[in-house]
Amino acid sequence: MAKVFNVNGACKPDRHYMVDLETRLKEIKAMVDAGEYFTIHRARQYGKTTTLCALTEYLKHEYEVVNIDFQVMSALSFQDEQTFVAAFSEELLDVVEHFPDGIEKRLIAFVEGMARINSLQSLFKVLKSWCSKADKKIVLIIDEVDTATNNQVFLDFLAQLRAYYLKRPDTITFQSVILAGVYDVRNIKRKIRADEEEKENSPWNIAADFLVNMSFSVDDIAGMLKEYEADYHTGMHIAQISNLMYDYTSGYPYLVSRLCKFMDERIAGKEGFPDKSSVWTRNGFLVAVKLLIEDNNPLFDSLTNKLKDFPELNVVISRLLFQGQSIAYNADDVAVRNARMFGFVKIEHSMVQIANRIFETRLYNKFLLDYKEQNSEIYGEGSRQKNQFIIDGHLNMKLVLEKFVETFDYLYGDRDDTFLEDEGRRYFMLFLKPILNGIGNCYVEPETRNRERMDLVIDYHGVQSICELKIWHGNAYHERGEEQLSNYLDYFKLTKGYMLSFNFNKKKTIGVKEIVLGDKVLIEAVV
Q1: The domain 22-200 belongs to what CATH superfamily?
Q2: Domain boundaries, given as residue ranges, for the chain
Q3: Confidence (pTM)
Q4: What is the pLDDT at residue 194?
Q5: How far is CA 265 from each of CA 156, 165, 246, 450, rounded to the nearest angstrom?
């Protein structure tokens, strides 16, 4: 059977195109060999389950690996200690093929309610006996621990694991325990009863730091594509496609696999793409990006739900997207910490950034949709005028700026400066959105994101335009901005760029002009 790109469940090397996990597995095994207990906490669909399945295979010749998924245990399994002990014992009986003499019988007694008492203390005496009699040292892996984190019985279970860990080496217990989920179990914030305040008091303070990088590098992606290319001989430029994949996803495993799946299965046969060879190109990749941004999938649903469940995330993301604020990472900032845990942001050079271009574009679309309800005038004008901006399939950015200046001045020219500074750039993107109309997309280059300057990259039908959005701070600053934009155009190998300045000088002259700077043409608009 031919291999496919997989985005549902764990990947299998014999059935799916995968990155090479060998280096990661060696790093994790070193922690297991050292007897570490640790947590693998990453955002949704970040390859945790695939890694754990591969780890189980990787360790099985040296260790007995017990891999349990708490997701298959119902909520009732955690309602009290007796029920949990029975449910946990039942899962052990299901996943372990062979027990030493007497262990299986004792676990069955827990399941059938025949034990003298179903307590965690009794369960761990059985587990201790199992570890001491087993032919190999035992590694316990528990996936989807998030299922249980708000239950007192789970905290008591962790406390037992911790107690036996601290008794080593005098007491034989698990060689290593690995807990996997989105939340860091070391920092459980829980509310066991409705009338109880939230507390952070996880007993999992024995956990070692897990520093293994689970995102895909350019080389990881290239390795996967080489395997695909060996099967299909598309003639793709593997280095180019790998770099594009990484530029847009920052190596987020699900996003990489989803883009590959779209390119492999959905684009060939559509207009302009008669076969796979024509798909595995830059233009084919950009079509896949458009499909992904418009896609409804569990990852995007999860992000949307987190914005509802944690309203403070909206404030952080809005500051990053629209206000151009630089946010220094502070480990005690709960909102930023949660945004990072759920995958919205990453930390680079001690600064908070949106995790990747795909998320950024999707978040822009969501926030602008919400914002449109309150500010329908500017969006409506962009929608009403949109047909005039597309000429022979190309976006006329100069005309977009001309009409935005005219429309913005008419609608908001009498607003105060604070309003303009906080909202102006958001309004330009709101005006632009119906013009792009799902065919194009835009994102902000993170290294230019600050309160004075944001470089907006607008991609329409594979043609990129760079538009610098800036706050006016005098002629000298403006000239430096022109030079910065010129240098940035070199990076994109472009000769024409655009600048939109929000000028609060009462004597300003609004409008659009064209200037030549070296070999570059800059279209400058002032509102």
Answers
A1: P-loop containing nucleotide triphosphate hydrolases (3.40.50.300)
A2: 22-200, 218-293, 364-526
A3: 0.88
A4: 41
A5: 48, 49, 20, 40
